[in-house]
Design brief:
Blueprint lengths: L3 E12 L2 E13 L4 E5 L6 H8 L9 E4 L2 E2 L5 H11 E4 L11 H11 L4 H14 L15 H14 L4 E5 L7 H16 L3 E6 L2 H4 L4 E6 L2 E5 L2
Helix pairs in contact: 3-4, 3-5, 4-5, 5-6
Bound molecules: adenosine-5'-triphosphate and magnesium ion.
Magnesium ion binds next to helix 1.
């Protein structure tokens, strides 16, 4: 069984009497250690699919197993736990907490698991070092470049050793060089064994992954690279 197993996932958005069918019988297997890009144009359903994979939203029918746990019939509290334990999120716009410094942002997922600040700090030193953020830990996000902010977001995503890293347009807000840095980092993380799912509308970005699946109008087409 793959680390992600989606079968026949459907999603509708209801607006008045009209239902918009946004995901149509989506089935997808992602193995541990894979690096997958989900490529599709604007409005094709990428973020909707990411929200479901990331346990931030539930599907209307279909089955979803994440790291062996059934998600499709999980209750809200369970989804929150699965999210915290299994998924490291990376967003286009970083989503850092502006009033927290770099260290406080990075250790957040560990504090949510009940570690003390001291334990969380110790636990995250290696990742902070690996991402070259050691001399920035007391800075606020507003005092960092876009590329640095995204590295903080990646450190926060990694610190809890999630089963998968889930990234929605991770280079979308970055200049070319910072974007290349982030993609190099993803490559390194994947070489180290991390499973990555990256969502993008940009073929040039998707081509950095091991495998690409396309989504058009809510339908997924699997293709090998
Ligand atoms: N909460 C919502 N209510 C109603 N319709 C929605 C909602 N969220 C998304 N949609 C619609 O669902 C479709 C898919 O949206 P989604 O955000 O998944 O696309 P996307 O592929 O991520 O696009 P983009 O590349 O622009 O981010 C679109 O037609 C969108 O208008
Ligand atoms: Mg989107």
């Amino acid at each position: 069984m793959g680390i992600i197993e989606l079968s026949n996932i459907n999603k509708y958005y209801y607006m008045g009497e009209n239902a918009l069918h946004v995901l149509k019988d989506v089935s997808l297997t992602v193995e541990k250690g894979d690096y997958l890009a989900i490529l599709g144009p604007s409005g094709s359903g990428k973020s909707t699919l990411m929200n479901i994979i990331g346990c931030m939203d539930v599907s209307d029918g279909g089955e979803y197993y994440l790291d062996g746990e059934s998600v499709h019939n999980a209750k809200e509290e369970e989804l929150t736990r699965i999210r915290n334990e299994k998924i490291g999120f990376i967003f286009q716009k970083y989503h850092l907490i502006p009033t927290y410094n770099v260290l406080q942002n990075i250790v957040m997922p560990l504090l949510m698991r009940g570690l003390t600040l001291k334990e969380a700090h110790e636990h995250s030193m290696e990742i902070i070092h690996m991402l070259g953020l050691s001399d920035r830990i007391e800075h606020k996000p507003s005092e960092l470049s876009g590329g640095q902010q995204q590295r903080v977001a990646i450190a926060r995503a990694l610190v809890g050793e999630p089963a998968i890293l889930l990234a929605d347009e991770p280079t979308g807000a970055l200049d070319k060089n910072s974007g290349i840095e982030v993609l190099k980092l993803f490559q390194r993380l994947n070489d180290m064994g991390n499973t990555i799912v990256m969502i993008t509308h940009d073929l040039g970005v998707a081509e950095h992954a091991k495998r690409i699946v396309k989504i058009v109008d809510g339908e997924l087409t699997i293709q090998e690279k």
